[in-house]
Amino acid sequence: MVDPALSFSSFGRHWGSPFTVKAIDDLGNEDTSPARYDWAIKVPPINTTPRGFINMRGAYFTDREIVKLSISATSPKGVTGYFASESPATPGAEDPGWTNFPAVRVYSQDVEYSISEATGRKSVHVWFKDESGNISGVQSDTIYRYNSYYFVF
């Protein structure tokens, strides 16, 4: 039996709430031990990192190991970390490699990242996480690394 007054349309400031379920049969017999459940809404951070986020939006080549990433994200639950990698595999919330910080609703920073040593095309992928361990979508960018001694000016 469903109570028509039951509504889940108002979440307020909470991202979950406990509720109970009890059975009542057609004869009016009630379950004496209703089940209690908790529900939660999973809202991952929104990765607002712009396209072209490596080396200030526009550098296509570098001879340096360290590049600057201009990254950003928002989350009503608070962004608590970012993960940058040349691997496109989505990290787990507990994987090593996360840069953690106190929760903020809006995160926007220029951070340094070490790209791999070999020359050639480098793709960097960035994710964010919140206090609950929800992980954002990915934002990716590419830069080409070269050795400066290959070029004659």
Total of helices? 1
**Strand residue content:** over 45%
Order of helices and strands: EEEHEEEEE
Which range best describes the helical content: under 10%, 10-25%, 25-40%, 40-55%, 55-70% or over 70%?
under 10%
Query: Largest sheet, described in full?
Result: 6 strands, mixed
Overall mean pLDDT score?
81
Q: Count of DSSP E strands?
A: 8
Roughly how many Å is the radius of gyration? Answer: 24 Å
The low-pLDDT segments are 1-14
Q: What separation lies between the terminal Cα atoms? A: 81 Å
**Backbone shape:** elongated
Structural class call reads mainly beta
Task: Describe the protein's architecture and organization.
This protein has 153 residues and is mostly beta strands. It has 1 helix and 8 strands; from the N terminus they run E-E-E-H-E-E-E-E-E. The strands form 2 sheets. Strands 3, 4, 5, 6, 7 and 8 form a 6-stranded mixed beta sheet that branches. Strands 1-2 form a two-stranded antiparallel sheet. The longest helix is centred in the middle third of the chain and has 4 residues, at 55-58. Residues 1-14 have low confidence and may be disordered.
